[in-house]
Amino acid sequence: MTPAASEEGKVPKRVVVPGDDLVAPGFVRLQVTVAFDGTHYYGWQLQPKDVSVQLRLEEALARLFPSAPRVHSSSRTDTGVHALGMVAHFDVPKSEFRMTPDKLVLAANAHLPPDVRVLAAKRSRPGFHARFSARGKQYRYQVWNHSAHHPLLMTQSWHFPRPLDLAAMRRAAATLVGRHDFRAFSATPGYARRNTVRTVTRCDVRRSGSLITVVIEADGFLYKMCRGIVGTLVQVGVGRFPPEAILPMIESKDRSLAGMTAPAQGLALWKVYYPAKPEPKRHVPAALSEPGADDEE
């Protein structure tokens, strides 16, 4: 990828190749970790008419960098879903980057609304791409299991007042670990999907007082997959399904046979995992850059 020819003194224009993880000559790639309360946003991704988290972040960066960089994220969270560890990157001309990463955090937050925060920033290593370099993600879902909802968790948890059988939920959760076709737990995204197989490496159900937290780690997630899993586990907890029903649900690949989709407000992208060392340069097929190639919560 090379910048287009430009007059001396002008910012070079970047030629964008979908899925390319190279940084154009004359540019620097910056990596940020972003946290947000998704209550008032129509998800992360830019929308034609609605306000998204990406829009607010790009507006803030445009106040700092005249080139108004486009942000590329590790995930595409849905309406009402939160994040504590969203990772994103953007490229800016070297001539525009005159501040330290620590100052970038302060400067970006000065132009962001209070429910969106940049937590960390750094120059990325060669070949880094927030989406294509990711090797796994962790989501956490909170259920407030008490007759009265916690007033401080109104927008951060699903209020479920009925008693739940945690032992049954944990047995069901253990069945989900492994490489499976998770179509039965995913909502239809509105387009044909190439692959619905994902590897879940962790599915824990924790309890602390009235707060139940479901921790799910996987190499990727289908559209509303976490919420389909949590909704099903909660229905196992009230006896709607036995724990042994999970495997037949997986094998059926039929969404109508699994449980309900849990509400959005209890879900948060907690962490994105990247390899400890740079990996060999790889080719990213153009097909992987198309919308829907990798669904998300």
What is the gist of this entry?
This protein has helices at 53-64, 101-110, 166-176, 225-237, 246-252; strands at residues 27-36, 72-73, 82-93, 116-123, 136-144, 158-159, 178-181, 197-208, 211-218, 267-273. With 297 residues, the chain is of the alpha+beta class. α1 crosses α2 and α3 runs antiparallel to α4.
Fold topology:
Blueprint: E1 27-36, H1 53-64, E2 72-73, E3 82-93, H2 101-110, E4 116-123, E5 136-144, E6 158-159, H3 166-176, E7 178-181, E8 197-208, E9 211-218, H4 225-237, H5 246-252, E10 267-273
Helix pairs in contact: 1-2, 3-4
Structural notes for this entry:
With 297 residues, this protein is an alpha+beta fold. The chain folds into 2 domains: 27-133, 2-Layer Sandwich (Alpha-Beta Plaits), CATH 3.30.70; 136-271, Pseudouridine synthase I, catalytic domain, C-terminal subdomain (Alpha-Beta Plaits), CATH 3.30.70. Helices cover 18% and strands 25% of the residues. The chain contains 5 helices and 10 strands; from the N terminus they run βαββαβββαβββααβ. Strands 1, 2, 3, 4, 5, 6, 7, 8, 9 and 10 form a 10-stranded mixed beta sheet that branches. Strand 2 (72-73) and strand 3 (82-93) form a beta hairpin. Helix 1 packs across helix 2 (101-110) and helix 3 (166-176) packs antiparallel against helix 4. It is globular, with a radius of gyration of 21 Å.
